[in-house]
Amino acid sequence: MSIVESPISSDPSVMGGAVVFHGTRVPVQTLLDYLDDGFSIETFIEFFPSVRREDAEQFLRLVGRRDS
């Protein structure tokens, strides 16, 4: 069994406690908004290079979403 680090975190001192991608100040909701607006995960990563693609993909799997 392996331990997988969570791709997300929440800290009251970072973005007011919003759920963000671990090690960044990018809210996970931003990725969901991009996908809902028809943008691809590639576009999101271009605009938010501090987010690792692997973390974005893992988050989407956790919430049951596919990248568009």
From TrEMBL:
Entry's Pfam families?
DUF433
Transmembrane parts of this sequence: none
Top-rank taxon, per record: Bacteria
Q: Which InterPro entries match?
A: DUF433 (IPR007367), Homeodomain-like_sf (IPR009057), WH-like_DNA-bd_sf (IPR036388)
Q: Which PANTHER family match?
A: SSL5025 PROTEIN, SSR2962 PROTEIN
Q: What is this protein called?
A: DUF433 domain-containing protein
Source organism (scientific name): Bythopirellula goksoeyrii
